[in-house]
Amino acid sequence: MSTLKRFFKDTIIYGIAAVLPRVINFLLVRVHTDALPTDNYAENTNFYIWAALFSVLLTFGMETAFFRFYKAEEKKDALISTSFISVFASAILFVILGFTFSDFFTTIFDFGENPLQLKLLIGILAIDTLAVIPFAYLRASNRPIKYAAIKLINVGVIVVINLVFLKYIPEFKDSETPVPTFLTTIFESTFIVNFIFIANIIGSAMSLILLLPYLLKFKWSFNILLFKKMLSYSWPIAVAGIAYVINENLDKILIGQLIDKSTMGIYAACYKLAIFMNLYIMAFRLGAEPFFFSHSNHKDAKETYARILNYFIIVGSLVFVGIVVFLDLIKEIFIKNTDYWEAIIIVPIVLLANLFLGIYHNLAIWYKLTDKTPYGMLFSIIGAIITIIMNVALIPVIGFIASAWATLLAYGTMMVLSYFIGNKYYPVPYNLKKSGSYLIVSMIISFVSFTYFRENYIMSIALVFTFGILIFWNEKKELLAILKR
User: Is 2 inside a domain boundary?
Assistant: First the structure.
Protein backbone atom coordinates (compact mmCIF):
# COMPACT_ATOMS: atom_id res chain seq x y z
CA MET A 1 0.00 0.00 0.00
CA SER A 2 1.37 3.44 -0.92
CA THR A 3 2.36 5.83 1.84
CA LEU A 4 -0.42 8.32 1.13
CA LYS A 5 -3.01 5.61 0.62
CA ARG A 6 -2.17 4.10 4.03
CA PHE A 7 -2.29 7.57 5.54
CA PHE A 8 -5.77 8.23 4.13
CA LYS A 9 -7.00 4.77 5.23
CA ASP A 10 -5.83 5.27 8.81
CA THR A 11 -7.21 8.80 8.88
CA ILE A 12 -10.65 7.54 7.82
CA ILE A 13 -10.65 4.93 10.58
CA TYR A 14 -9.42 7.41 13.18
CA GLY A 15 -11.98 9.82 11.80
CA ILE A 16 -14.80 7.41 12.55
CA ALA A 17 -13.47 6.98 16.07
CA ALA A 18 -13.16 10.73 16.61
CA VAL A 19 -16.06 12.06 14.57
CA LEU A 20 -18.83 9.68 15.57
CA PRO A 21 -18.52 10.37 19.31
CA ARG A 22 -18.52 14.13 18.68
CA VAL A 23 -21.49 13.85 16.31
CA ILE A 24 -23.43 11.82 18.84
CA ASN A 25 -22.50 14.24 21.59
CA PHE A 26 -23.68 17.07 19.33
CA LEU A 27 -26.98 15.26 18.79
CA LEU A 28 -27.32 14.79 22.54
CA VAL A 29 -27.49 18.56 22.87
CA ARG A 30 -31.14 18.26 21.87
CA VAL A 31 -31.70 15.67 24.62
CA HIS A 32 -29.87 17.83 27.17
CA THR A 33 -31.69 21.06 26.33
CA ASP A 34 -35.06 19.27 26.43
CA ALA A 35 -34.34 17.74 29.83
CA LEU A 36 -32.41 20.50 31.60
CA PRO A 37 -33.40 23.99 32.71
CA THR A 38 -31.12 26.68 31.29
CA ASP A 39 -29.22 27.11 34.56
CA ASN A 40 -28.46 23.38 34.66
CA TYR A 41 -27.24 23.53 31.06
CA ALA A 42 -24.92 26.35 32.10
CA GLU A 43 -23.55 24.00 34.79
CA ASN A 44 -22.84 21.44 32.09
CA THR A 45 -20.91 24.02 30.04
CA ASN A 46 -18.96 25.19 33.08
CA PHE A 47 -18.08 21.59 34.03
CA TYR A 48 -16.50 20.80 30.67
CA ILE A 49 -14.60 24.08 30.45
CA TRP A 50 -12.79 23.11 33.67
CA ALA A 51 -12.39 19.55 32.40
CA ALA A 52 -10.69 20.81 29.23
CA LEU A 53 -8.28 23.00 31.18
CA PHE A 54 -7.24 20.35 33.70
CA SER A 55 -6.96 17.67 31.03
CA VAL A 56 -4.15 19.71 29.46
CA LEU A 57 -2.46 20.23 32.83
CA LEU A 58 -2.62 16.56 33.86
CA THR A 59 -1.20 15.16 30.62
CA PHE A 60 1.33 18.05 30.21
CA GLY A 61 1.96 17.31 26.51
CA MET A 62 3.11 13.74 27.20
CA GLU A 63 0.97 12.29 24.40
CA THR A 64 2.77 14.28 21.71
CA ALA A 65 6.13 13.55 23.37
CA PHE A 66 5.26 9.85 23.23
CA PHE A 67 4.83 10.05 19.44
CA ARG A 68 8.01 12.06 19.12
CA PHE A 69 10.15 9.42 20.87
CA TYR A 70 8.28 6.26 19.89
CA LYS A 71 10.15 5.52 16.67
CA ALA A 72 13.56 6.70 17.87
CA GLU A 73 13.47 4.88 21.21
CA GLU A 74 14.65 1.28 20.82
CA LYS A 75 13.38 0.21 24.24
CA LYS A 76 9.65 0.58 23.71
CA ASP A 77 8.86 -0.87 27.16
CA ALA A 78 10.84 1.91 28.84
CA LEU A 79 9.12 4.59 26.78
CA ILE A 80 5.62 3.28 27.42
CA SER A 81 6.12 2.61 31.11
CA THR A 82 7.91 5.92 31.75
CA SER A 83 5.18 7.83 29.93
CA PHE A 84 2.39 6.01 31.73
CA ILE A 85 3.96 6.26 35.20
CA SER A 86 4.45 10.01 34.75
CA VAL A 87 0.79 10.67 33.89
CA PHE A 88 -0.29 8.14 36.54
CA ALA A 89 1.60 10.17 39.16
CA SER A 90 -0.02 13.32 37.83
CA ALA A 91 -3.49 11.77 38.13
CA ILE A 92 -2.87 10.48 41.66
CA LEU A 93 -1.56 13.86 42.80
CA PHE A 94 -4.63 15.55 41.33
CA VAL A 95 -6.97 13.14 43.12
CA ILE A 96 -5.22 13.71 46.46
CA LEU A 97 -5.23 17.50 46.09
CA GLY A 98 -8.78 17.53 44.78
CA PHE A 99 -10.23 15.70 47.75
CA THR A 100 -7.93 17.31 50.32
CA PHE A 101 -8.89 20.83 49.24
CA SER A 102 -12.42 19.99 48.10
CA ASP A 103 -13.98 23.07 49.68
CA PHE A 104 -11.56 25.34 47.84
CA PHE A 105 -12.11 23.67 44.46
CA THR A 106 -15.88 23.53 44.97
CA THR A 107 -15.86 27.32 45.37
CA ILE A 108 -13.46 27.97 42.49
CA PHE A 109 -15.39 25.70 40.10
CA ASP A 110 -18.75 27.10 41.27
CA PHE A 111 -20.00 23.65 42.30
CA GLY A 112 -21.38 24.89 45.64
CA GLU A 113 -24.98 23.80 45.08
CA ASN A 114 -23.97 20.44 43.63
CA PRO A 115 -20.79 19.14 45.37
CA LEU A 116 -21.03 15.73 43.67
CA GLN A 117 -19.86 17.47 40.49
CA LEU A 118 -16.38 17.91 41.97
CA LYS A 119 -16.05 14.18 42.71
CA LEU A 120 -17.24 13.33 39.21
CA LEU A 121 -14.86 15.85 37.65
CA ILE A 122 -11.92 14.43 39.59
CA GLY A 123 -12.87 10.88 38.63
CA ILE A 124 -13.35 11.62 34.93
CA LEU A 125 -10.08 13.53 34.66
CA ALA A 126 -8.10 10.88 36.54
CA ILE A 127 -9.44 8.00 34.43
CA ASP A 128 -9.06 9.85 31.12
CA THR A 129 -5.49 10.80 32.06
CA LEU A 130 -4.62 7.14 32.67
CA ALA A 131 -6.04 6.24 29.25
CA VAL A 132 -3.96 8.78 27.29
CA ILE A 133 -0.79 6.69 26.88
CA PRO A 134 -2.56 3.38 26.07
CA PHE A 135 -4.58 5.16 23.39
CA ALA A 136 -1.39 6.81 22.09
CA TYR A 137 0.26 3.39 21.92
CA LEU A 138 -2.56 2.03 19.75
CA ARG A 139 -2.14 4.96 17.37
CA ALA A 140 1.67 4.81 17.29
CA SER A 141 1.68 1.05 16.70
CA ASN A 142 -0.75 1.45 13.80
CA ARG A 143 -3.82 -0.22 15.33
CA PRO A 144 -6.59 2.14 14.24
CA ILE A 145 -9.37 -0.48 14.29
CA LYS A 146 -8.79 -1.41 17.94
CA TYR A 147 -8.53 2.26 18.80
CA ALA A 148 -11.83 2.97 17.04
CA ALA A 149 -13.60 -0.02 18.62
CA ILE A 150 -12.78 1.10 22.17
CA LYS A 151 -13.79 4.68 21.43
CA LEU A 152 -17.13 3.56 19.99
CA ILE A 153 -17.86 1.34 23.00
CA ASN A 154 -17.23 4.38 25.19
CA VAL A 155 -19.75 6.36 23.14
CA GLY A 156 -22.33 3.60 23.29
CA VAL A 157 -22.20 3.51 27.10
CA ILE A 158 -22.53 7.30 27.35
CA VAL A 159 -25.47 7.45 24.93
CA VAL A 160 -27.41 4.68 26.67
CA ILE A 161 -27.06 6.27 30.11
CA ASN A 162 -28.03 9.70 28.76
CA LEU A 163 -31.11 8.36 27.01
CA VAL A 164 -32.21 6.29 30.02
CA PHE A 165 -31.91 9.04 32.64
CA LEU A 166 -32.59 12.17 30.60
CA LYS A 167 -35.27 10.93 28.24
CA TYR A 168 -36.77 7.53 29.08
CA ILE A 169 -37.27 7.88 32.85
CA PRO A 170 -38.52 11.52 32.81
CA GLU A 171 -41.07 10.61 30.13
CA PHE A 172 -42.34 7.33 31.53
CA LYS A 173 -41.81 7.31 35.30
CA ASP A 174 -45.30 8.72 35.91
CA SER A 175 -47.00 6.80 33.11
CA GLU A 176 -48.35 3.28 32.88
CA THR A 177 -45.15 2.13 31.21
CA PRO A 178 -43.18 0.21 33.84
CA VAL A 179 -39.87 1.73 34.92
CA PRO A 180 -37.69 -0.36 37.28
CA THR A 181 -37.98 0.96 40.84
CA PHE A 182 -34.22 1.14 41.40
CA LEU A 183 -33.83 3.39 38.34
CA THR A 184 -36.60 5.68 39.54
CA THR A 185 -34.99 5.85 42.99
CA ILE A 186 -31.61 6.80 41.50
CA PHE A 187 -33.25 9.38 39.24
CA GLU A 188 -35.18 11.08 42.03
CA SER A 189 -32.22 11.22 44.40
CA THR A 190 -29.73 12.77 41.95
CA PHE A 191 -29.42 16.20 40.36
CA ILE A 192 -30.51 15.62 36.79
CA VAL A 193 -27.46 17.35 35.27
CA ASN A 194 -25.19 14.89 37.08
CA PHE A 195 -26.36 12.04 34.85
CA ILE A 196 -24.38 13.59 31.98
CA PHE A 197 -21.22 13.37 34.09
CA ILE A 198 -22.09 9.93 35.48
CA ALA A 199 -22.44 8.65 31.91
CA ASN A 200 -19.03 10.15 31.12
CA ILE A 201 -17.23 8.56 34.07
CA ILE A 202 -18.73 5.12 33.41
CA GLY A 203 -17.82 5.34 29.71
CA SER A 204 -14.28 6.42 30.58
CA ALA A 205 -13.90 3.58 33.08
CA MET A 206 -15.05 1.07 30.46
CA SER A 207 -12.43 2.37 28.02
CA LEU A 208 -9.65 2.09 30.60
CA ILE A 209 -10.65 -1.50 31.42
CA LEU A 210 -10.48 -2.42 27.73
CA LEU A 211 -7.04 -0.79 27.48
CA LEU A 212 -5.56 -2.67 30.44
CA PRO A 213 -4.38 -5.69 28.39
CA TYR A 214 -2.10 -3.39 26.39
CA LEU A 215 -0.60 -1.96 29.57
CA LEU A 216 -0.01 -5.30 31.27
CA LYS A 217 2.03 -6.73 28.41
CA PHE A 218 5.01 -4.42 29.00
CA LYS A 219 7.87 -4.59 31.48
CA TRP A 220 7.55 -1.75 33.95
CA SER A 221 10.38 0.62 34.75
CA PHE A 222 10.89 4.36 35.05
CA ASN A 223 13.74 5.88 33.06
CA ILE A 224 14.50 9.22 34.67
CA LEU A 225 16.76 10.39 31.82
CA LEU A 226 14.12 9.57 29.24
CA PHE A 227 11.49 11.32 31.34
CA LYS A 228 13.60 14.49 31.50
CA LYS A 229 13.99 14.47 27.70
CA MET A 230 10.26 13.95 27.21
CA LEU A 231 9.37 16.63 29.76
CA SER A 232 11.72 19.12 28.12
CA TYR A 233 9.91 18.44 24.86
CA SER A 234 6.37 18.35 26.24
CA TRP A 235 5.99 21.25 28.67
CA PRO A 236 5.79 23.95 25.98
CA ILE A 237 3.07 21.85 24.30
CA ALA A 238 1.15 21.87 27.59
CA VAL A 239 1.39 25.67 27.79
CA ALA A 240 0.18 25.85 24.19
CA GLY A 241 -2.72 23.58 25.14
CA ILE A 242 -3.75 25.93 27.94
CA ALA A 243 -3.65 28.85 25.51
CA TYR A 244 -5.85 26.83 23.13
CA VAL A 245 -8.42 26.26 25.89
CA ILE A 246 -8.44 30.03 26.46
CA ASN A 247 -8.96 30.66 22.75
CA GLU A 248 -11.87 28.23 22.62
CA ASN A 249 -13.69 29.19 25.81
CA LEU A 250 -12.84 32.70 26.95
CA ASP A 251 -15.14 34.32 24.41
CA LYS A 252 -18.22 32.59 25.85
CA ILE A 253 -17.30 33.56 29.39
CA LEU A 254 -16.65 37.21 28.46
CA ILE A 255 -19.86 37.51 26.42
CA GLY A 256 -21.77 36.34 29.49
CA GLN A 257 -20.00 38.90 31.68
CA LEU A 258 -19.84 41.87 29.30
CA ILE A 259 -23.29 41.46 27.70
CA ASP A 260 -25.59 38.90 29.37
CA LYS A 261 -26.15 35.16 29.80
CA SER A 262 -28.84 35.09 27.12
CA THR A 263 -26.46 36.43 24.47
CA MET A 264 -23.83 33.99 25.68
CA GLY A 265 -26.29 31.13 25.08
CA ILE A 266 -27.18 32.38 21.61
CA TYR A 267 -23.52 32.70 20.66
CA ALA A 268 -22.56 29.32 22.16
CA ALA A 269 -25.39 27.51 20.35
CA CYS A 270 -24.47 28.91 16.94
CA TYR A 271 -20.76 28.36 17.64
CA LYS A 272 -21.54 24.65 17.94
CA LEU A 273 -22.45 24.55 14.24
CA ALA A 274 -18.73 24.91 13.53
CA ILE A 275 -18.36 21.42 14.97
CA PHE A 276 -18.39 19.96 11.47
CA MET A 277 -15.09 21.66 10.65
CA ASN A 278 -13.71 20.69 14.05
CA LEU A 279 -14.61 17.05 13.41
CA TYR A 280 -12.73 17.07 10.13
CA ILE A 281 -9.67 18.61 11.76
CA MET A 282 -9.76 16.15 14.66
CA ALA A 283 -10.05 13.13 12.37
CA PHE A 284 -7.14 14.40 10.30
CA ARG A 285 -4.92 15.06 13.33
CA LEU A 286 -5.49 11.61 14.80
CA GLY A 287 -4.18 10.01 11.65
CA ALA A 288 -1.60 12.66 10.81
CA GLU A 289 0.36 13.10 14.02
CA PRO A 290 1.72 9.54 14.37
CA PHE A 291 2.20 9.37 10.59
CA PHE A 292 4.27 12.57 10.50
CA PHE A 293 6.62 11.29 13.18
CA SER A 294 6.96 7.78 11.76
CA HIS A 295 7.61 9.12 8.24
CA SER A 296 10.12 11.81 9.25
CA ASN A 297 13.21 9.78 8.28
CA HIS A 298 12.03 9.03 4.75
CA LYS A 299 13.88 10.88 2.04
CA ASP A 300 10.62 12.19 0.55
CA ALA A 301 9.16 13.22 3.93
CA LYS A 302 8.96 16.95 3.21
CA GLU A 303 7.36 16.42 -0.20
CA THR A 304 4.81 14.11 1.41
CA TYR A 305 4.00 16.69 4.09
CA ALA A 306 3.47 19.29 1.38
CA ARG A 307 1.08 17.04 -0.54
CA ILE A 308 -0.85 16.20 2.62
CA LEU A 309 -1.36 19.89 3.44
CA ASN A 310 -2.62 20.47 -0.08
CA TYR A 311 -5.20 17.67 0.31
CA PHE A 312 -6.12 18.95 3.76
CA ILE A 313 -6.87 22.41 2.35
CA ILE A 314 -8.85 20.91 -0.56
CA VAL A 315 -11.14 18.91 1.71
CA GLY A 316 -11.30 21.66 4.34
CA SER A 317 -12.27 24.24 1.71
CA LEU A 318 -15.05 21.96 0.44
CA VAL A 319 -16.30 21.43 4.00
CA PHE A 320 -16.20 25.19 4.59
CA VAL A 321 -18.13 26.03 1.43
CA GLY A 322 -20.61 23.18 1.88
CA ILE A 323 -21.57 24.23 5.40
CA VAL A 324 -21.93 27.91 4.49
CA VAL A 325 -24.09 27.14 1.44
CA PHE A 326 -26.45 24.90 3.42
CA LEU A 327 -26.22 26.83 6.71
CA ASP A 328 -29.87 27.82 6.78
CA LEU A 329 -30.92 24.20 6.37
CA ILE A 330 -28.45 23.06 9.02
CA LYS A 331 -29.64 25.59 11.58
CA GLU A 332 -33.25 24.44 11.18
CA ILE A 333 -32.23 20.83 11.82
CA PHE A 334 -30.02 21.38 14.86
CA ILE A 335 -31.30 24.65 16.35
CA LYS A 336 -35.08 24.75 16.08
CA ASN A 337 -35.52 27.66 18.47
CA THR A 338 -35.47 30.78 16.28
CA ASP A 339 -34.32 32.91 19.23
CA TYR A 340 -30.83 31.49 18.65
CA TRP A 341 -30.64 32.40 14.97
CA GLU A 342 -29.60 35.96 15.75
CA ALA A 343 -25.96 34.80 15.99
CA ILE A 344 -25.94 32.68 12.83
CA ILE A 345 -23.73 35.30 11.17
CA ILE A 346 -20.75 34.13 13.26
CA VAL A 347 -20.73 30.64 11.75
CA PRO A 348 -18.86 31.37 8.47
CA ILE A 349 -16.26 33.37 10.41
CA VAL A 350 -15.75 30.62 12.99
CA LEU A 351 -15.60 27.94 10.27
CA LEU A 352 -12.81 29.81 8.48
CA ALA A 353 -11.02 30.36 11.79
CA ASN A 354 -11.05 26.64 12.47
CA LEU A 355 -9.81 25.88 8.96
CA PHE A 356 -6.87 28.21 9.68
CA LEU A 357 -6.32 26.30 12.92
CA GLY A 358 -6.25 23.03 11.00
CA ILE A 359 -3.66 24.42 8.59
CA TYR A 360 -1.64 25.58 11.60
CA HIS A 361 -1.68 22.04 13.02
CA ASN A 362 -0.29 20.77 9.71
CA LEU A 363 2.43 23.40 9.66
CA ALA A 364 3.27 22.71 13.30
CA ILE A 365 5.09 19.53 12.35
CA TRP A 366 8.29 21.55 11.90
CA TYR A 367 8.71 22.50 15.54
CA LYS A 368 7.68 19.04 16.73
CA LEU A 369 10.24 17.29 14.52
CA THR A 370 13.03 19.75 15.31
CA ASP A 371 12.31 19.73 19.06
CA LYS A 372 11.57 23.46 19.02
CA THR A 373 8.26 23.11 20.86
CA PRO A 374 8.71 26.47 22.68
CA TYR A 375 7.70 28.03 19.36
CA GLY A 376 4.37 26.22 19.55
CA MET A 377 3.92 27.65 23.02
CA LEU A 378 4.83 31.12 21.74
CA PHE A 379 2.34 30.97 18.85
CA SER A 380 -0.47 29.82 21.13
CA ILE A 381 0.27 32.53 23.70
CA ILE A 382 0.19 35.17 20.94
CA GLY A 383 -3.17 33.76 19.84
CA ALA A 384 -4.49 33.89 23.41
CA ILE A 385 -3.33 37.50 23.81
CA ILE A 386 -5.15 38.48 20.60
CA THR A 387 -8.26 36.68 21.85
CA ILE A 388 -8.21 38.46 25.20
CA ILE A 389 -7.50 41.96 23.86
CA MET A 390 -10.04 41.84 21.01
CA ASN A 391 -12.81 40.38 23.15
CA VAL A 392 -12.35 42.83 26.02
CA ALA A 393 -11.97 45.85 23.72
CA LEU A 394 -14.60 45.08 21.07
CA ILE A 395 -17.44 43.12 22.69
CA PRO A 396 -18.80 46.29 24.38
CA VAL A 397 -18.57 48.09 21.01
CA ILE A 398 -19.82 45.65 18.34
CA GLY A 399 -21.24 42.83 20.42
CA PHE A 400 -20.77 39.07 20.15
CA ILE A 401 -19.46 39.15 16.58
CA ALA A 402 -16.23 40.58 18.00
CA SER A 403 -15.53 37.16 19.50
CA ALA A 404 -15.82 35.46 16.11
CA TRP A 405 -13.43 37.95 14.49
CA ALA A 406 -11.04 37.56 17.44
CA THR A 407 -10.96 33.79 16.89
CA LEU A 408 -10.29 34.26 13.16
CA LEU A 409 -7.47 36.74 13.74
CA ALA A 410 -5.89 34.63 16.50
CA TYR A 411 -5.77 31.42 14.47
CA GLY A 412 -4.84 33.23 11.27
CA THR A 413 -1.91 34.90 13.00
CA MET A 414 -0.72 31.59 14.44
CA MET A 415 -0.91 30.00 10.99
CA VAL A 416 1.11 32.75 9.29
CA LEU A 417 3.76 32.90 12.03
CA SER A 418 4.22 29.14 11.98
CA TYR A 419 4.69 29.09 8.21
CA PHE A 420 7.31 31.83 8.01
CA ILE A 421 9.34 30.79 11.06
CA GLY A 422 9.06 27.11 10.14
CA ASN A 423 10.39 27.89 6.69
CA LYS A 424 13.61 28.97 8.37
CA TYR A 425 14.16 25.87 10.53
CA TYR A 426 12.46 23.09 8.54
CA PRO A 427 11.57 24.25 5.02
CA VAL A 428 8.83 22.19 3.39
CA PRO A 429 8.04 22.76 -0.31
CA TYR A 430 4.39 23.71 0.21
CA ASN A 431 2.67 24.72 -3.02
CA LEU A 432 1.34 28.05 -1.77
CA LYS A 433 0.06 29.09 -5.18
CA LYS A 434 -2.14 26.02 -5.60
CA SER A 435 -3.25 25.55 -1.98
CA GLY A 436 -3.69 29.29 -1.46
CA SER A 437 -5.86 29.58 -4.55
CA TYR A 438 -8.22 26.87 -3.26
CA LEU A 439 -8.47 28.68 0.06
CA ILE A 440 -9.13 32.08 -1.52
CA VAL A 441 -11.72 30.72 -3.96
CA SER A 442 -13.56 28.97 -1.10
CA MET A 443 -13.65 32.25 0.84
CA ILE A 444 -15.03 34.14 -2.16
CA ILE A 445 -17.70 31.52 -2.88
CA SER A 446 -18.74 31.40 0.78
CA PHE A 447 -18.97 35.20 1.01
CA VAL A 448 -20.97 35.51 -2.22
CA SER A 449 -23.30 32.64 -1.32
CA PHE A 450 -23.94 33.82 2.27
CA THR A 451 -24.29 37.50 1.35
CA TYR A 452 -26.16 37.41 -1.96
CA PHE A 453 -27.60 33.93 -2.50
CA ARG A 454 -28.76 32.74 0.94
CA GLU A 455 -31.35 29.99 0.47
CA ASN A 456 -30.94 30.32 -3.30
CA TYR A 457 -29.65 26.77 -3.44
CA ILE A 458 -29.60 26.45 -7.21
CA MET A 459 -27.06 29.24 -7.55
CA SER A 460 -25.10 28.22 -4.46
CA ILE A 461 -24.89 24.56 -5.50
CA ALA A 462 -23.76 25.67 -8.96
CA LEU A 463 -20.92 27.62 -7.35
CA VAL A 464 -19.91 24.62 -5.23
CA PHE A 465 -20.08 22.28 -8.22
CA THR A 466 -17.89 24.63 -10.25
CA PHE A 467 -15.39 24.73 -7.38
CA GLY A 468 -15.37 20.93 -7.22
CA ILE A 469 -14.76 20.65 -10.96
CA LEU A 470 -11.87 23.10 -10.70
CA ILE A 471 -10.27 21.06 -7.92
CA PHE A 472 -10.70 17.77 -9.74
CA TRP A 473 -9.25 19.20 -12.95
CA ASN A 474 -6.14 20.39 -11.13
CA GLU A 475 -5.69 17.24 -9.02
CA LYS A 476 -7.02 14.43 -11.23
CA LYS A 477 -3.63 13.09 -12.27
CA GLU A 478 -2.39 12.59 -8.72
CA LEU A 479 -5.76 11.42 -7.36
CA LEU A 480 -6.03 8.73 -10.02
CA ALA A 481 -2.45 7.66 -9.37
CA ILE A 482 -3.16 7.23 -5.64
CA LEU A 483 -6.34 5.24 -6.30
CA LYS A 484 -4.51 2.86 -8.64
CA ARG A 485 -1.76 2.02 -6.12
Answer: no
